[in-house]
Amino acid sequence: MPEPTEVRLGDDVRLHVETTGPTDAEVTAVLLHGWTLDGRSWHRQLAALRETFGSVRVVTYDARGHGRSSCMALPTATLAQLGDDLAAVLDTVAPTGPVVLVGHSMGGMTIMEYAHRHPDHFSRRTAGLVFVSTTAEGHTHTVYGLSPRIARIIRLAETTGAGVLARCGAWRPPRALLRALRPSIRWMLFGDSCDATDIRLVTSAVARASLRSIGGFRASIGTQHRLATLTALAHLPAAALVGDRDRLTPPPCAQSIAAALPATELTVCPGAGHMLMMERPEEVNAALAGVLRRVLDDLPAGQRVLG
């Protein structure tokens, strides 16, 4: 069973963290969720890792303002702060040994921000990367599967609404409203098919996110550009995955990441949307396992962990 703990950050934000696996594991996998979601979005990967890599430690946590973590001051609702938070989580719950960082959407952008803001810390700790449905170019490629003209209108409405929500503080979205919005959530986040339990989990996660985090992170998510940061990480074992029906981070996002990291294994999943961990768990699990095996194989013989 996952072991819950709490990490208190320098600004008194409390992060809900869950760990599984031995505390003395030589390799730790850290799974970072997307915007408005929480650590539960990785439940299929957690089950697969427990079965296949029982001697690898696994860490998930809810980002500030999300899930069971506490809300925060509006100026800290930025990707830069999330990069700092990741460094603090590693120092607290996985202070030694190599780590494999796995990020979905905003989680992937958090990894890039961590690499940009803490390059020495990153280089000392990070041994592998997995990017799931994410981007290094903000909203450059995001047209929601629509014409560019309509996409511009939607983006204007979205960014305006985000500014309003960001000023609503720690309030959560009303569950009745979210139930009414399920068809829209399903259209935005999923591809050709969607399991009913997945849409319920996503809706539940959105209901736990504060309105400040739903609105506050939108600006930095839209403007981040970290391709130059990625080019310095080309030596790391890495994988990038995307669904060809992803309306938020479409295939060009993953393709540009793979171009910046030439050794990256790129997987495009036909018919899948933005929630690949749920829609295509086998592909995500295989990519994560491939990176973990490469990291484990590179360990000195006396330190090698057998999965």
Automatic annotation (TrEMBL):
Tell me the protein's name.
Answer: Alpha/beta hydrolase
A GO molecular-function annotation: hydrolase activity
Query: Which Pfam families did the record assign?
Result: Abhydrolase_6
Q: Which GO terms describe its cellular component?
A: membrane
**Looking at the keywords, is Hydrolase present?**
yes
Which keywords does this chain's UniProt record carry?
Answer: Hydrolase
Q: Where is the AB hydrolase-1 domain?
A: 30-287
